[in-house]
Predict the 3D structure of the following.
Amino acid sequence: MLLALQMNMLLETAAIIGTEIANANAVDGFSNYEICQRSGFRQYPTWDRSSRMRVEWNGAGVRAESLDPRHPQEFVQSRSVERHTGPQSPEGDNSFISTSIAPEDL
């Protein structure tokens, strides 16, 4: 009720001065709402652990309904395999064409 009276006084004062208030219902200062970084919904913080904001694996704070957990397949590591270095087959000898080739031969 007190807020409604203050808003009416503010609007009357703005009408007397002749200024326009673009967003008269805006509240200056901090609010207790938390904004979900995935969906953009705002949520009032509660003591209930199931409805609190959670931090995802990428650092984004999201609602419990929008939580996207990391896939378990991302944690799978491959087995270490011994790698053998060096040539797998012997290198062939250098053989070059010793005769000259004329355009008619092609």
